[in-house]
Design brief:
Largest sheet: 7 strands, mixed
Helix content: 25-40%
Radius of gyration: 42 Å
Strand content: 15-25%
Strand order of the largest sheet: 11-12-7-8-9-10-13
Number of strands: 13
Length: 323
């Protein structure tokens, strides 16, 4: 079994069966939490590495108050339909479990996520898990990957327990021969490719794709910029107000020409004629303004129609650069 299969598993505690009602005699469980780390026995040179238990993260009280993790022994975990059930929790959880196993809990090790490097200082990656016996907990191999989520592609290194020399400054220390470990699992490993070759191909593909996207984006941006510039100029030209013609302005009236007496019949007729001419001129001016507005709206609409094409132009440029 792999330790990664335990991570995230739901852990339940047995409750006393109901004594009344239609559910009388049925097994009941309460949730303890979820496994978020695996506990290994303290390292001792010459002895087998061993999984002794798991750390269970309890749910927060009322969603706000964080509870301490619970230690549960490996041997007490039993698989049931709802998850993993703790047998005899009074002797297999926290202090009672530590006392029963006679563990020096402070020197137990959490290998998961720890950097793995050889005695001469060469880094091999990070511990991603271990293969172990479900009954005894004895580790048959540690698994070391690059810690970047690419293990599904290139696999992981299988580290033999005898290569383990201990730990120092938060890192797993291995004998130098661990540097020659072969990949296990992963698509590249099954195809017989080495880790470096697989990583190089992935890097090359990423660089090629990045260049294509950059070129397509640059060309698309150029087309978009030209289209927007044309639209902006057309709208400005269509909406620019016509220059006023001074010749159409009425002549200013001098103060001495203003008379308070009642005009004669001839003067009244002339005044009415002048007012009618002004009204007609005003109506003509209004029609001209409406025509100008219609012209601007039409020009704007045409440019909006052209702008719709810029997206297809961008896509065409992207497709060409991606080939």
């Amino acid at each position: 079994m792999k330790t990664t299969e335990l991570l995230g598993a739901k852990v339940l505690l047995p409750k006393k069966p109901a004594t009344k009602g239609k559910h009388a005699g049925e097994e009941r469980f309460s949730k303890l939490g979820k496994i978020h780390n695996v506990v290994f026995a303290p390292f001792k040179q010459g002895q087998s590495s061993q999984v002794v238990g798991v750390m269970v993260q309890k749910p927060d009280i009322a969603g706000m108050i964080k509870q301490d993790d619970a230690f549960v022994t490996l041997e007490s975990l039993e698989t049931i339909e709802q998850g993993l059930c703790v047998k005899d929790p009074e002797n297999n959880v926290d202090k009672a479990a530590i006392k029963r196993l006679n563990l020096d809990f402070d020197t137990c090790i959490l290998w998961h996520g720890m950097e793995a490097r050889t005695k001469n200082g060469k880094s091999l990656g990070y511990v991603s898990g271990a293969e172990f016996d479900q009954v005894t907990g004895v580790v048959s191999a540690f698994l070391v990957g690059d810690g970047a989520g690419s293990e599904a592609l290139v696999g992981s290194f299988a580290i033999k327990p005898e290569w383990l020399l201990g730990y120092s400054n938060g890192a797993m220390v291995l004998s130098d021969e661990a540097a020659d470990a072969q990949l296990t699992g992963g698509l590249a490993a099954k195809a017989g490719e080495g880790y470096a070759a697989a990583a190089a191909k992935a890097s090359e593909a990423t660089a090629k794709a990045g260049k294509a996207v950059a070129e397509a984006t640059e060309k698309g941006a150029f087309v978009l910029g030209k289209t927007l510039a044309k639209a902006k100029r057309a709208i400005e030209d269509a909406t620019e107000p016509d220059a006023e013609d001074d010749s159409e302005r009425p002549a200013p009236v001098a103060a001495e020409d203003v008379r308070l007496e009642k005009p004669s019949a001839e003067e009244q007729v002339a005044a009415d004629k002048s007012a009618a001419e002004k009204s007609a001129a005003k109506s003509a001016s209004k029609s001209s303004a409406q025509a100008t507005a219609n012209k601007a709206a039409k020009g704007f609409g045409m440019q909006l129609g052209r702008m719709g094409k810029m997206f297809s132009d961008f896509k065409d440029e992207f497709d060409k650069a991606s080939k």
